[in-house]
Write a structure and sequence with these properties.
single chain, alpha/beta, Protocatechuate 3,4-Dioxygenase, subunit A, six-stranded mixed beta sheet, five-stranded mixed beta sheet, 8 helices, 32% helix
Length: 309
């Protein structure tokens, strides 16, 4: 029978030392968070009678996770990123904040400083022979007015489910662009229809998902950051309707309001208008931004403080 010690005064004092609460140095918030995490871990070890071999197997797993650079993949897979969205949604509801376009997860594959264009852009470099996709719409505020000077930062995978920078076979910033809206709030871009993707089958993320009896597949999707002065930064993504995993995304990113209709055009006249000789698809999607609140401004300041620390 396992002996219970996690709630003893000896262990409580030990936790205070380990988490630095007995020292005047360090960051008070970090100490509180570490203390809470360690307390929960100690209780988990005790409740499930975790054995040393199981403990060290977990340490080996985290080492493998880091070496494979899959921490950002496991995070959405365990629902942590979606939980952040649910929590922010609940905070907005409690505060009576009117929401615009639904938020959803960022994922681990964003790269900053993509080329900036005015009004429109072509995302792909022409080497991937996927079906051409035109996407366009208007960035609006909550009153429906166009937002000029908004930045639509867009990125997505190629037809193999791979992202530039992480996939060294692709050109720099392939399928990544920033588009600045004009006074009419409009944006548009030409690209190719992306493919969904799955976790590396032999990687640590899929290994844990296998233990949970879950798959590691994502539906085809396109990521966006949309920002404008006086408005909240929007992190979101749209899914390609009809995908097999549309409502079975291992990363839990699918949300109603983010599945626009996709129209496929095979008419020769329409193809000619687009200077194409093959069928193409089209998506129309407007983004609605929420006005910046005091709390949002404070968040930006606090984020800068953390980055500078």
């Amino acid at each position: 029978m396992a002996v219970k010690i996690a709630q003893t005064e000896e262990v409580k004092k030990f936790l205070n030392i380990v988490s630095g609460t007995t020292s005047e140095k360090g960051n008070p918030r970090t100490k509180k968070i570490v203390h809470r995490i360690l307390t929960d871990l100690f209780n988990t070890i005790e409740e499930f009678d975790v054995q040393p071999w199981e403990f060290w197997a977990a340490i080996d797993y985290f080492n493998d996770l880091g070496q494979s650079m899959e921490a950002g993949l496991l995070t959405p897979g365990l629902g942590l990123e979606h939980f952040l969205d649910l929590r922010m949604d609940a905070e907005d509801k409690a505060a009576g904040v009117k929401q615009g376009t639904p938020r959803t997860i960022e994922g681990p594959l964003y790269v900053a400083n993509a080329p900036l264009s005015k009004g429109s852009a072509r995302l792909d470099d022409g080497t991937d022979k996927g079906e051409v996709l035109f996407m366009h719409g208007v960035v609006r505020d909550l009153d429906g007015k166009p937002v000029g000077g908004a930045i639509v930062d867009v990125w997505h995978a190629n037809t193999k489910g791979f992202y530039s920078f992480f996939d060294k076979s692709q050109t720099k910033y392939n399928l990544r662009r920033r588009i600045e809206t004009g006074p009419d709030g409009r944006y548009e871009f030409q690209t190719i229809i992306p493919a969904g993707y799955g976790c590396p089958p032999d990687g640590p993320t899929q290994r844990l998902l296998d233990q949970l009896g879950r798959h590691g597949q994502r539906p085809a999707h396109i990521h966006f950051f949309v920002s404008a002065p006086g408005h909240r930064h929007l992190t979101t993504q749209i899914n390609i309707a009809g995908d097999k995993y549309l409502y079975d995304d291992f990363a839990f990113a699918t949300r109603e309001g983010l599945i626009p209709k996709i129209a496929r055009h095979e008419d020769a006249k329409k193809m000619k208008e687009k200077e194409l000789n093959t069928p193409f698809s089209e998506i129309e999607f407007d983004f609605t931004l929420t006005a910046l609140a005091k709390k949002d401004a404070e968040e930006v300041v606090n984020r800068r403080r953390v980055e500078a620390a």
